[in-house]
Structures are given as C-alpha cells and as structure tokens.
Amino acid sequence: MTQSTLTRSTEANSATEINRKTPDSIRQPVWHVAVLGFFSFGLYLIYWFHKTWSTLKAHALTLEKKGLTQSGDNEFPVQTYARSRPWLKTLTFFVPLLCSPLGFTPIAPVVALALKFVYPVVMLFLFANLFKDIASMIPDRGADSSWAKTNSIQAGFVLGMAIPFCLVLAGANGMAYLLYLLVVIPVSVAQGWLNQYWEHWETKELGEVKALRTAFTPLETILIIVGALGLGMVMFTPN
What we know:
By secondary structure, this protein is mainly alpha-helical. The protein has helices spanning 3-16, 30-39, 44-65, 78-82, 86-91, 95-99, 108-136, 147-150, 152-168, 184-205, 218-236.
C-alpha cells in the first residue's frame, strides 16, 4: 500500500468519524419522544407536532430553493409544506381552551356540539395527514420496503386513530386513566419513520456525517424530574 493510499484512507476515516465538532443530526431518538411525552403527561407531544411541522416546512423551502420537487427517491410534498402554517396547526390544540369563554354566551350549545363532533374530526385529519406524509417519506428499498412505506395512507390513518383512542382512556376510573399516556407510542413510531428519512437525507443526499444527540438538554432534564415527581404524587397519594 502506497503512502498516498494511506493518506486517503486516513482522510476518509477522519471525515466519517464522529467527535465533539460533528454537527448534530436533525434526527431525534425515539425513546426521547417516549420519555419526554410520558413524563410531561403528554404535553410535550404538542411541542413535537409543532416542531415536526416547522422542520418539514423549513426542509420544503430548502428543496424548493434548489428547484427540487422531491428528495431523491423519497416522496415529499414540497409545495404542501412550503406553504403550510405550523403555528396555525399548533393553535388547533388550544381551540377548546380558546372557545371556553363562548360557553357563557347564547351560542354555547352550538359551540359544545362543534367541539364534540367537528373538532375531533379536524384533529384526526391533522394527525393522520402528517403521519401519512411521514410514512411516504420512508426511504424506498424496493421489494424490502416496509408496510408503512407501501401503504402510507393506511399507516397514517392507523396512527392517527391511535391518538384519540389513547386519549379516551383518560376517562377511565381510578389509576387506569394514566393509560392515556400510551399516546406516546404512535408518536414515537412516527418519529422512527422520520429518522429513517433524515438519515437518508443527511448521508445520501447531503453526504454529511452528523451525530445523533442522545443526551437530554438541561430543560428536558428538568421536565423529566418535575414530571416524575408529579407522577409519583399522583400514583401514591391516597384518594
């Protein structure tokens, strides 16, 4: 082996080696989503949806500037997300709270009916549509492609339906109401699909090596500690 070959080999290894200077990947560990969602009593998931919508919009704008309508062989609705409004979608989570003052007005019965029948359908559409898009973005592996990739509409609908199903459990008696925290499962599954896309984008499309952050930030650590204390008080405080 010549000296030049050794030099090229060393440069290639240093280029792919992950160290403290390696930029963070856009990916997020699946277990991060599950832990943060669980110990925040599900509130973190609102932030997860907002962050995901915002990240996909930024990615769509990047692709649009490059004149691309898709990322490689992956299906990505660039125009849809480039024109989206993440803040408006996130605001839908707070519609019941924002509509609460209307409960003291003459239209209170109409508002109550809308929140009972129309609002759940709107939220289901938002969830299922996002999950469908994420499933369609999973890298294509031909005959070895996952069920979610080849059946993105069905996969999105299944995960979308799983969220209200889990939230209904909040009305269970006794400590069983905590089963609503199973809502972290469908969101974690979606994060796993999303990670596959981002890994493909960073390594195959950009040709970059980025580090997957596994440590929690100080704010996330505080959230987990406070959530664990709150969960302990809920579980061990006598009724």
